[in-house]
Amino acid sequence: MATRSKIDADLVKRGRTDPVAPEAIPAMQDYCQRLGDDALILGQRLSEWCGHAPALEVDLSLANLALDLIGQGTNFLGLAGDADKLAFHRDVLDWKNCWLVEQPNGDFAQTIARQLLFSTWQHMLYERLAASSDERIAAIAAKGVKEVAYHRELAADWTIRLGDGTEESARRMAEGLDWCWRFVPELFEVDEVLEGLIADGIAVDPRLFEGEYRSVIAAVLAEAKLAVPADQRAILGGRRGHHSEHLGHLLAVMQFLPRTYPDAQW
């Protein structure tokens, strides 16, 4: 983990002379890991579509989304410590991503449902996080918001095309949304770590835009002629290292090479 002196030195390099309060350092690292883990895990999931998407255009689109997300994950994990070690040498219980991003791709409709729900939230988060009192976090968010705006638009367009398409595509889209809906409440969960960072202006309080988020999702689904899924028992715990079995399988693939050849030089 980054030390206080390392963080302060980085601030000085960037023209900042106000050091981070000592008690804020672990919380900031935790927050950056959450943001980085969300992006990296979803990027890894989307990369699984490479060569398997229903059309070449879609194959390229999903690959581009994956690259954007992996870049965001690298940047946020770089603030939390050694990005490579955090990505490839942590066990499953040490990951802090939300449950939504680790869910299997399923069919194309389920992938789009997951992307719609996450990218809409991530876009709203990054828009506000660009005003973070920590300029490093703000800079990553400001760059990422431009990328995620496209992710959100693409997911919304495909949701509408599938929902307002054939009977089969509408059924699959509805089933994908129903599968993913239980993971939405975790996106707006606020714990003690987040509370302190919100008070310092470093983090964003997601509860403040939950109403807007739900209205936007409802509007997209209305245009797609799909019903908003019924509320389900919320699945929580990803931020505390409690995950589904799906994450372990994903990490086994993602971490295989650096764990098998730890001293390899590229």
TrEMBL record:
Record keywords: Oxidoreductase
InterPro entries: Aromatic_CoA_ox/epox (IPR052703), Ferritin-like (IPR012347), Ferritin-like_SF (IPR009078), PaaA_PaaC (IPR007814), PaaC (IPR011882)
Entry EC no(s): 1.14.13.149
Pfam families the UniProt entry points to: PaaA_PaaC
SUPFAM superfamilies according to UniProt: Ferritin-like (SSF47240)
GO molecular function, one term: phenylacetyl-CoA 1,2-epoxidase activity
Protein name: Phenylacetate-CoA oxygenase subunit PaaC
Origin species: Sphingomonas caseinilyticus
Gene designation: paaC
